[in-house]
Design goal:
The complex is a heterodimer of chains A (about 375) and B (about 475). Chain A has about 375 residues and is of the alpha/beta class. Chain A contains ten helices and 18 strands. Chain A folds into two domains: about 200 residues, FAD/NAD(P)-binding domain (3-Layer(bba) Sandwich); about 150 residues, D-Amino Acid Oxidase, subunit A, domain 2 (D-Amino Acid Oxidase, Chain A, domain 2). In chain A, strands 6-2-1-10-18-17 form a six-stranded mixed beta sheet. In chain A, strands 11, 13, 14, 15 and 16 form a five-stranded antiparallel beta sheet that branches. Chain A has a four-stranded mixed beta sheet with strand order 4-5-3-12. In chain A, helix 1 runs parallel beside helix 6. The mean pLDDT of chain A is about 95. Chain B has about 475 residues and is α/β, with parallel strands linked by helices. Chain B is built from 17 helices and 22 strands. In chain B, strands 1, 2, 3, 4, 5, 6 and 19 form a seven-stranded mixed beta sheet that branches. In chain B, helix 5 packs parallel to helix 6. Chain B is globular. The N terminus of chain B is likely disordered. The chains are: A alpha/beta (about 375), B alpha/beta (about 475). At the A-B interface, helix 4, helix 6, strand 11, strand 15 and helix 8 of A face helix 11, helix 13, strand 22, helix 15 and helix 17 of B. Strand 16 of chain A pairs antiparallel with strand 22 of chain B, so a sheet runs across the interface. The complex binds flavin-adenine dinucleotide. Flavin-adenine dinucleotide binds next to helix 1, strand 11 and strand 16 of chain A.
Chain lengths: ~375, ~475
C-alpha cells in the first residue's frame, strides 16, 4: 500500500514542491520547517531555471511555463536566457556550451556582438558576442516558495513553520513519526529536504550523506529600464533583471562554512559586494550608474561531486540539490514524490543521483578537497 | 587549515589587507562624533572621522539619509558649493584638525564587515567608505557610530508628493545646507522635536502656520513656541495634503479646516540610525523611550549621540508614534501609497498582494495579512518579499518603520515583537561604478568562478562517464556558466 500520510522536512523549494506533488496525488501531507517558508537558500538565490546538465532538465522545462497556472499564484517565470561575453575566453567557453547543448538537442543560438547589443540595451561596446538559450529562464524565488506553500494549503496540506525537526520515531526499520520542538507527527513515510541539515538528520537514521556547506552572495540594484529578455548574464556572474527592473546578480568565490544543527542564524554578506558590482558594471556598462541597494548571502550544500542526491531507503526519501535546487524544484519535487509513493521516478532515469555513488567515501573527503571552514 | 587552500575557488586569501588602518574610525561629524574623535586623538590614537554630508546631489531624491521630501533647492546638486557650505556650517569640526584627526566630508560609511558566524575570510575588520566617485575599505580597531537619527515618515493621503518631509531633513536643510525650498510649513507633532523644529524654522524666516498635535495637549514645554506666536492645534491631525505639480499647497485637517502651506514637516519621531550596526550583526535592544531599536555596544563597535538612542526624558516615543499611526492610518484609504518606491498601497499591504506588474489571480485575492499571520508570527522581511514594501531605491527609509507598526497592529502584538527587518550593506545606495572594486586582488581575479567551480557539477547527465565528460572539463576548466 502506498503512503497515505507523509511528513516533509524542510519548506525550501525542494520540500515544498515535493509536498505539492504529494498533495496533488491525494496524500495527507505536513511540511515542517525550522523557520519561515523559503527562508534559506530557496529565498536567496538567482532564480535561474536552465539546468541542461540535469536528468530533471526536460521536466524542469516542461513545468516552468505552466507553474503559475498549476499553483494558482504568480512565480514571475520568464523564459529564455542570453549569456554574453566581455572577454575572448568567455566567448570561447560560451560557444562551447552552445555547441554542447545543440549536440544534446537543446537549442542554443550564437549571437554576434551587434545581435547581443540589440537584445540587451544595457550591454556596451566591450561585448564580444553571446549565446541565446531557447529554453530555460528565471523566476522570482520569493514569490515561488510562497506560491508552493499556498498551493499546498489550497490542496488541504499543512505547513508548520518554526518547528525544527529533532528526531524520528522508528518501528521495524520504518519511520513512524517525526518529532519536532512543537509536536510529534505520525506518518507512513517521510521526505527529507532540509538543505544543509539533510546530512545531520539522515545521520540520525543511520544514513551517511556526505555534505559540505558554503556561503554565496548576491547584490541587487535599483530598477533599470526593462529589457525584452531579463535573463541575461555572463562575465562570471549569474542573475537576472527582475520583472520590476532590478538587476540581481551573484557569482564569485564561496566560503566553506560550518554551523550548528539549526543552521546559522545570520547570513552576512562581505566586501565581495564590490567585486560583484565591478563585474556587473563591466557586463552592463550602460547600467554602471545604477545604485546598488542591497546585498545578501545564502547557504548551499554540496555533495562531493557537486551533483544532487535524490534517493530512498525504506520509507525515508531524501533530496539534496547541490546548488541548483531552485530551478529544478518543479521537477525534483515530482521525482521525490514519485520515490515516496512508487519507489521510482516515473518520468526519467535518475539512477546516477543515487547515494550509493559515495559508498565508502570515508571521513577525510572534505580535507582532501579543501572544503573546510577557516 | 592548510587543506583549505586546495579549493582555488573558495574565498580564502582573496580579500586583501586594507591599505589604510586606523585605531579609531568615527562615522558622523555631529557633536558627539566630534567629541569621540577628539577624545581618541588626545589619547594618542590614529583617528579618522568621516561624515556623509554633503550627500551627492543624485541621492537627495532617494531621501538619503533624511526625508528631504523634494524640498531641497537645486543648490544641492552643486557639489563643490555644497562642500563649502557644509564645511562652513560644521565649524565645530575645527578642533579636530589641530588634534591631528583625519577628517573626510562627503564620505559615507556603507558597510561594516568583521569575522564572526558564517564569515572567517576577512583579513581584518573593515568599514566600507565611499565618496561620489569611488569606494574603499579601511581597517579599524574601534568603530564609533555617531550617525544620528533619521526621520520617521508616516503615510496619510497625499504624503507621497513633494513637500511632505521630515523634521531632521528640514533641520539639515536650514542649518547645514542653506538649501530649503519652502516658505510656509505645518509641523506635525508637538514633543520637543516638533517644538524645536518650529522655533528654529521661524528663526530662519520660515513661516510656521501651525503645529499639530494628535493628543490633548502639547507634549513638551510649549511656552517659547506660544510666545513666538506659533499656534498649536491639539486633537488635530492631517487628513490630506493637497497640491499641484510643485507639490503640497495645502493641508486638510481632521477638524475640517485647511491650512495653506508648501511643506508638511513630520516631527512625530526620529529613528536612531542603526543600519550600519545591524548590517554588521551587532546586538541591539528595544527601548521605547529612546526611539525604538537601539544599538548595544560590543568590544569593537560603540554608538554615541542619537545613534545610540534619543535622550531618555521619560517620554515614550513608541506609544506616541502609535497614537499618530491610529489617527493618520484612520485617514488613509486602501489606495493610500505606503511604499513610495514600489507604489505599494495600504490595501496591497494588508492584502499581501504582489506588485501591479503582476496579475492577481483569484487564489491570491483570498490571501491577506491575516491569513499570513495565521500561519506564523509577523515577519517584515517576509512581507517585504511578497509585497515589495521597503524593497525600493530608498532602501526602506521612507516606509520600513511604519510597515513594522502596521504589522504589529494587524498581529495585535507589541512593536518590539515584530523582528526588525534586516539591514544590508550597502546601507546607502551606491552606483555600481562607485561601489565596484576596480583594484581587486589578483587572487580574486584568478579564482573567480560563476558558481562553486566544481567541474563535475556541470557535466550533462547523458555525458557522465563518456569521453565528453573529459572534454567538458578541459574546455571549461571549472569556470562555468549556470
Ligand atoms: C546566492 C545563491 C544563488 C543561487 N542561485 C541559484 C539559481 O540561480 N538557480 C538555482 O536553481 N539554484 C540556485 N541556488 C541554489 C538553490 O537556492 C538551492 O539549491 C535550493 O534553494 C535548495 O532548496 P532546498 O529546498 O533543497 O533547500 P533549502 O532552501 O536550504 O531549504 C531547506 C529547508 O529545510 C529547513 N530545515 C533545515 N533543518 C531543519 C530541521 N531540523 N527541521 C525543520 N526544517 C529544517 C530549512 O529551514 C529550510 O527552509 C542558489 C543559492 C544561493 C545561496
Amino acid at each position: 500500500m502506498s503512503a497515505q500520510k507523509v511528513v516533509v522536512v524542510g519548506a525550501g523549494a525542494s520540500g515544498l514542491s515535493t509536498a505539492w506533488w504529494l498533495a496533488r496525488s491525494g496524500v495527507e501531507v505536513t511540511v515542517l520547517d525550522k523557520g519561515v517558508v523559503g527562508w534559506e537558500a530557496s529565498g536567496r538565490n538567482g532564480g535561474g531555471c536552465s539546468h541542461y546538465q540535469s536528468p530533471l532538465f526536460k521536466e524542469e522545462q516542461r513545468l516552468w511555463p505552466q507553474m503559475d497556472e498549476l499553483l494558482g499564484y504568480p512565480t514571475e517565470f520568464s523564459p529564455e536566457r542570453i549569456v554574453m561575453a566581455v572577454t575572448p575566453r568567455q566567448l570561447e567557453q560560451y560557444t562551447y556550451i552552445a555547441q554542447m547543448n545543440n549536440r544534446l538537442g537543446h537549442r542554443v543560438d550564437l549571437l554576434d556582438a551587434q545581435q547581443v547589443r540589440e537584445a540587451v540595451p544595457l550591454a556596451g561596446d566591450n561585448c564580444l558576442g553571446g549565446i541565446h538559450y531557447r529554453f530555460g529562464g528565471h523566476a522570482n524565488p520569493h514569490r515561488t516558495v510562497q506560491a508552493y506553500a499556498w498551493a499546498i494549503q489550497d490542496l488541504g496540506g499543512r505547513i508548520v513553520q518554526h518547528s525544527p525537526v529533532t528526531g524520528f520515531r522508528r518501528e521495524g526499520g520504518k519511520v513512524t513519526a517525526v518529532e519536532s520542538t512543537t509536536a510529534t507527527y505520525e506518518c507512513d513515510a517521510v521526505a527529507i529536504a532540509a538543505g544543509p541539515q539533510t546530512g545531520t538528520l539522515l545521520a540520525q537514521l543511520g544514513i551517511d550523506l556526505p555534505l559540505a556547506a558554503a556561503r554565496a552572495e548576491m547584490i541587487v540594484t535599483e530598477p533599470a529600464p526593462m529589457m525584452k529578455l531579463g535573463g541575461v548574464d555572463g562575465n562570471g556572474l549569474y542573475g537576472r533583471q527582475t520583472l520590476r527592473g532590478n538587476l540581481a546578480y551573484g557569482g564569485g568565490p564561496h566560503e566553506w562554512v560550518e554551523f550548528g544543527d539549526l543552521g546559522p542564524e545570520v547570513k552576512p554578506s562581505t566586501p565581495l559586494t564590490r567585486n560583484l558590482a565591478r563585474r556587473l558594471a563591466e557586463l552592463f556598462p550602460n547600467a554602471a550608474h545604477l545604485n546598488v541597494i542591497r546585498s545578501w548571502a545564502g547557504v548551499i550544500e554540496m555533495t562531493p561531486d557537486g551533483r544532487p542526491v535524490i534517493d530512498r531507503k525504506d520509507n525515508v526519501t531524501f533530496c539534496t540539490m547541490s546548488g541548483v535546487g531552485f530551478g529544478l524544484s518543479p521537477a525534483s519535487g515530482h521525482a521525490v514524490s514519485d520515490l515516496v509513493l512508487e519507489g521510482r521516478c516515473s518520468f526519467t532515469d535518475i539512477d546516477k543521483l543515487a547515494l550509493s555513488r559515495f559508498d565508502g567515501i570515508g571521513e577525510g573527503w572534505k580535507t582532501q578537497k579543501g572544503w573546510l571552514p577557516l | 587549515m592548510s587543506a583549505r587552500g586546495t579549493d582555488p575557488h573558495a574565498i580564502d586569501g582573496k580579500f586583501p589587507v586594507p591599505g589604510q588602518h586606523y585605531d579609531l574610525v568615527v562615522i558622523g561629524g555631529g557633536t558627539s562624533g566630534t567629541q569621540a574623535a577628539l577624545k581618541g586623538a588626545q589619547t594618542g590614537l590614529k583617528v579618522l572621522l568621516v561624515d556623509e554630508n554633503p550627500v551627492p546631489g543624485h541621492q537627495v531624491g532617494n531621501d538619503v539619509p533624511w526625508f528631504f521630501g523634494g524640498r531641497a533647492t537645486a543648490a544641492m546638486q552643486n557639489s563643490e558649493r555644497m562642500l563649502e557650505t557644509v564645511f562652513a556650517n560644521m565649524d565645530h569640526l575645527e578642533p579636530l584638525f589641530d588634534a591631528g584627526v583625519e577628517v573626510q566630508l562627503g564620505t559615507c560609511a556603507w558597510g561594516v564587515y568583521r569575522n564572526g558566524p558564517l564569515v572567517g575570510s576577512l583579513p581584518s575588520q573593515v568599514v566600507g567608505l565611499a565618496d561620489a566617485e569611488k569606494s574603499w575599505l579601511v581597517g579599524f580597531d574601534q568603530l564609533v557610530l555617531a550617525t544620528g537619527a533619521r526621520d520617521l515618515p508616516m503615510a496619510f493621503p497625499g504624503w507621497n508628493q513633494p513637500g511632505v518631509m521630515g523634521a531632521a531633513a528640514l533641520g539639515k536643510l536650514l542649518s547645514l545646507y542653506d538649501a530649503f525650498a519652502g516658505r510656509r510649513i505645518v509641523v506635525v507633532g508637538s514633543h520637543e522635536l516638533g517644538l524645536e523644529t518650529a522655533l528654529s524654522a521661524q528663526t530662519k524666516g520660515i513661516e510656521v502656520a501651525a503645529i499639530l498635535e494628535v493628543r490633548d495637549a502639547p507634549q513638551a514645554d510649549a511656552a517659547a513656541v506660544t510666545a513666538a506666536g506659533i499656534p498649536i492645534r491639539c486633537r488635530t491631525w492631517p487628513v490630506e495634503a493637497k497640491g499641484g505639480l510643485g507639490g503640497v499647497e495645502a493641508l486638510v485637517l481632521s477638524d475640517g479646516t485647511t491650512l495653506a502651506c508648501d511643506s508638511v514637516v513630520m516631527a512625530i519621531g526620529l529613528v536612531p540610525m542603526l543600519e550600519l550596526h545591524d548590517a554588521a550583526n551587532a546586538a541591539r535592544q528595544f527601548a521605547p523611550n529612546r526611539g525604538g531599536w537601539v544599538p548595544v555596544a560590543d568590544s569593537n563597535i560603540t554608538a554615541v549621540g542619537n545613534c545610540a538612542g534619543l535622550p531618555d526624558t521619560g517620554f515614550d516615543h513608541v506609544a506616541y508614534r502609535q497614537a499618530w499611526m491610529e489617527a493618520l492610518g484612520g485617514a488613509c484609504g486602501g489606495d493610500t501609497v505606503i511604499c513610495q518606491c514600489e507604489e505599494m498601497t495600504l490595501a496591497d499591504l494588508t492584502g499581501v498582494q504582489p506588485p501591479r506588474y503582476l496579475d492577481r489571480p483569484p487564489a491570491l485575492q483570498r490571501r491577506s495579512l491575516s491569513t499570513l499571520l495565521a500561519d506564523g508570527p509577523p515577519n517584515q522581511d517576509q512581507v517585504k518579499r511578497l509585497t515589495r514594501s521597503g524593497m525600493g531605491q530608498c532602501q526602506g527609509r521612507r516606509c520600513r518603520d511604519q510597515v513594522a507598526m502596521i504589522l504589529a497592529a494587524e498581529a495585535k502584538c507589541k512593536l518590539a515583537e515584530v523582528p526588525l527587518a534586516t539591514h544590508r550593506a550597502p546601507v546607502r545606495p551606491l552606483p555600481l561604478k562607485v561601489i565596484a572594486d576596480w583594484e581587486e586582488s589578483e587572487e580574486m581575479r584568478a579564482g573567480w568562478d560563476v558558481w562553486m567551480g566544481i567541474p563535475t557539477q556541470w557535466v550533462p547527465y547523458a555525458d557522465i562517464g563518456t569521453p565528453y565528460e573529459e572534454e567538458n572539463r578541459r574546455v571549461l576548466g571549472g569556470n562555468m556558466s549556470l
